[in-house]
Amino acid sequence: MISAYLSRLKEYASFDESLEISPYAKMMGFRLRRQDGNLMTAMTFNSNHIGSPYPPTLHGGTVASLMEMAALMQLIWDKDMGHLPKAIDITVDYLRSGKPEDTYARARVFRRGRRFATLHAEAWQSDPEKPIASAMLHFQLSE
Fold first, then answer.
1. CA–CA separation, 59 vs 51, rounded Å?
2. For 21, which of 7, 44, 84, 109 is 20 to 30 Å away at the CA?
């Protein structure tokens, strides 16, 4: 299902689509973008994403979830898969507080074998050169 969805999007040089592959992705407001050949996952800001009200900052779990989704989409995008890879480990480094605004994430495959893949992801808001978090993720590829 997801592989077919992404295969359809590969035909376009650029797009910005709501990522409604699951109720969770829809609730979080995830979007999938492609610009200049790069795949990016975005999270539309919602007041439910706030973790600390004073000052208002994003909950760390929303940022980690965005980076996990970005890594998952990048892995499926790179390697047409008939099944979802399973996340087996994620290590997040929070670098600065997330403001109450849209957040973006991009992932790259660091290493991919037959059974496991390692990816690196970064999340940012207004400036990609100032990430708010980075993550190293490991996925099991085999069913």
1. 4
2. 109
Q: At what angle do helices 2-9 and 60-78 cross, to 10 degrees?
A: 70
Strands 50-53 and 133-140: unpaired
Amino acid at 126: S
Domain architecture of the chain: domains with CATH: 2-140 (3.10.129.10)
Least Cα distance to 5 among 77, 72, 100 occurs for 77
- Claim: this prediction has a pTM higher than 0.85: yes
Beta bridge partners of 111: 118
37: tokens are 């050949």
- Chain segment 61-111, per-residue pLDDT in tens: 999 999 999 999 898 888 767 678 899 999 999 999 999 999 999 999 999
